[in-house]
Amino acid sequence: MAAAQQDTTQHQLRTVQVFGKPAEVYAAGSRVVQVDSAYLSTYSSGTLAEALQARTPIYFKSYGASGTSTVAFRGTNASQTAVLWNGLNIAPATLGQSDFSTLPLSGIGEVAVQHGAAAATYGSGAIGGAVLLNSAKYKTARLSGDVKLEAGSFGRYFGSGSAGYSTKKFSFGVSAYGQLAKNDFKYKDLTRFGTPEVRQDNAQVEQHGFTKDLSWQISPQTQLAVHGWYTFSDRELQPAMGSAYADARQRDESLRLMAELQHQSRFGQTDIKLAYFNEYLHYTDLSNDSKSEVDTYQLQAEQTFTRGERWSLRGGLNMQHFVADNDGYAAQQDENRASLFALFRYNPVQPLQLSLNLRQALVEGFNPPPTPALGFNWKFFNSNQHQVSLKGNASGSYRVPTLNDRFWAGTGNPDLKPEQGWSYELGLRHVLVQGNTFLLETEATAYHMLVDDWIQWSPGNTGAWRPVNLQKVESKGIELSTTATSTLREVKLSSTAGYTYTSSEQVEVYEGNGDEGKQLMYVPRHKAILSAEANYRNWRLLGNLNYTGLRYTSNSETNNLDSFILLNLALSRKLQLGQHSLLLTLRSDNMTNAAYQTMAYRAMPPRGYTFSLRFIIP
Predict the structure, then answer these.
(1) Cα–Cα distance between 43 and 54 in angstroms, integer?
(2) What's the whole-model pTM score?
């Protein structure tokens, strides 16, 4: 076991097996955090952006209540974050990034984040970190399901349902959701004299989607799984304050299909994944009508060899084929990518765990370097109450320019170089256990990252945005986190606190291009979260406090957005109806009515309320 001794493991929030299927098993020395199931259940009507913003000190840039929402790990940008679904990267080759506002929590089983470079494990784009999504698992030996209805402020309505059934050899689950949000809140227009209060218009969002998951144990050694995930979003794009009315609208449609075969033999475990992803985007305004569609075909084959509890080796091949039709391109663009990888985990002695990973990518028109990763976890002190571990990691990373970076007519830059970088981190972890009533886990990590030929879209002298290579960017900082759980008779308490300090600066500049020694735009130096949960009998109180520091809106540090604090509260009451349950929840988002922006001149909702009913079978 990678967790504690027998007398403490049973009290930990999550036990991680050394030799399990998840790829993070081979991420010794890296920081991997899982979003707790209590939050995912209470906020299941939300998006992945809202969940990660509330439960992790990661910064999201949201273009208003109806606009796109993208992530920034450790001072990097959205294209430098890998998003994986059941182990495969879902970012389209056109944008090279995921819009988290179109990724619903409904139908997702597990959400985890890995901080830091992980290209050896996940490939191109995993420079700042990775978001790991897994489908829901249906293991109840009878029919199970739930129905949720929700209504909230600013014309927001949500409904979802799921059903699942399983036997020893077969399991099946399906879920569906739908949402309408008018987003007609009031805000102060900072661009008008006297900052009058006005009502937001052109910000309505309609979303729906479904998931299907099937698993069949063909034999004791062989299992087949099929997953499907469809999302649809039709939204009016919220205009910036003071801008002319443009009637901007965007429709996003995503279909993700995957089949996975797993087989156990005397040679180890064989995993074969075959996937098809389709991403469609249609943007219109008063003067534009643009469509983009990209098909991704992906094959990944892995073989895992395990010997006792000492070592495990996983080798594999990943192949991708992209077909992109985009009105912004002069012609259809096709691209092939492949990579070979080997992931090795070795425990020479019980307190020490080592991992050594290597990936070699093959991309048309580019020559990415080999990307290694070496990490360790050393539990150098272990008693009945205290465990202290030292961990560290050194990782290479790379990112191939996206198709939009290279081929967008008028602004694309075909001469862009691929990004290459190195990341180093060192951390200390302490676990304190006192009987069955108290658990405290604390972790501190310091990191340093250097990325050559960093690609960034920024406005030029004419105001037009285009991608350029910044010669060298240095990102460094610290990450602190602590989690506590306690039981006082019938009251169960838990809390999580996290803080990050991030310095992300351009340290070497091409002649006449860039702002050396200044914080990159939209990277807050300070970010912190505090969440707490109290359970008493059938009552649950959940709170989230989120602090985001000052951010500059340009690389020259000439303009900035003020810091802000958000407070969200949720109170739930569970009613038992025979074998079934009815869950009543009242939520208040932005309870202090803070006025804030995550992108310049994009208004965000004030205080709002939501009430939901959830009927659970059994």
Answers:
(1) 10
(2) 0.91
Q: Of the candidates 329, 326, 357, 361, which has an alpha carbon nearest to the alpha carbon of residue 343? A: 357
Amino acid residing at 337: R
pLDDT of 59-89, one tens digit each? 888 999 998 999 888 999 888 999 999 999 9
Q: Are 256 and 275 in contact (CB under 8 A)?
A: yes
Output the CA angle 404-509-374, nearest 5 degrees.
75
Do residues 239 and 67 touch, judged by C-beta distance below 8 A?
Answer: no
Domains and CATH numbers, the chain: 22-202+245-617 (2.40.170.20)
Q: Are 362 and 344 in contact (CB under 8 A)?
A: no
Instruction: Tell me the C-alpha distance between 191 and 589, whole Å.
Output: 26
- Cβ within 8 Å of residue 221, ≥6 positions away: 263, 264, 265
Confidence tier at 300 by pLDDT (50, 70, 90)? very high
Question: Residue 89: beta bridge partners?
Answer: 84
Extract the tokens encoding 167.
Answer: 């036997």
Query: Which pairing describes strands 129-135 and 144-152: parallel, antiparallel, or unpaired?
Result: unpaired
The alpha carbon torsion through 419, 424, 428, 429 (nearest 10 deg) reads 30
Rounded to whole angstroms, the Cα distance separating 382 from 351 reads 9
* 390 C-beta neighbours (distance < 10 Å), count: 16
